[in-house]
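Give me the fold.
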Amino acid sequence: MNEVLRCENVSIQFGGLKAIDNLNMHINSGELLGLIGPNGAGKTTVFNMISGEYSPTEGKIYLCGEKINGLRPHILVKKGIARTFQNIRLFGYLSALENVKVACNKDMSYSIPEGMLRMPKYWSEEKNKSLEALKILDIMGLKHLADAPAKSLSYGDQRKLEIARALATKPKLLLLDEPAAGMNPNETMSLMYTIETIRDRFGITVLLIEHDMNLVLGICERLMVLNYGKTLAVGKPNEVVNNKDVITAYLGNGGD
């Protein structure tokens, strides 16, 4: 099975604090890996290094065998990494369709003059991208909201729209940072189905940060647990959640 992501001895230090210490991780093509741990364990820092927000102090990160250390986020998007954030980052006054089309635009090939003069190539590509964006919205169950301003959508639908926008970049690796945060149980169940559908339909590899253990145990094939920037456990979900060190990290000594 082909590896999509590999982190080798990756560390990052901020001043005197080592936020991530010697991380070794791999994700195979089509896999759904959950990255979990207590608050402050370093999970989002790992995402920030993979997506180019931070550059590791030590170690190497590979995407499909290519070293990507130090590459800027927009370059990594073109290479196949997309992500969502803990705090929703949509263009509130744009429609749901326009939010997705923004991400589709990375593949636009018409020139600035062709766009300004509204030449045939401009109209052709804009039509194709609108259809592509509508298809993604349909998969996410949002097609009926295509013309609604993003800010008018429910919280759960805004979360789905952010994932839809990430999908529009045609990623090889999708990083989901707490996608179920703030969702009610019904929205979370819908999200679980959506994530599995995305993986199965598009063959996208998914790395997921999430505190909702029902979601994590329901869809993840492997789990990696971080604590204070170090790897605490890696394995199948049922093995990891019964690991004494993991229980202690989450519950304190009372978990012994």
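The longest strand covers residues 3-14.
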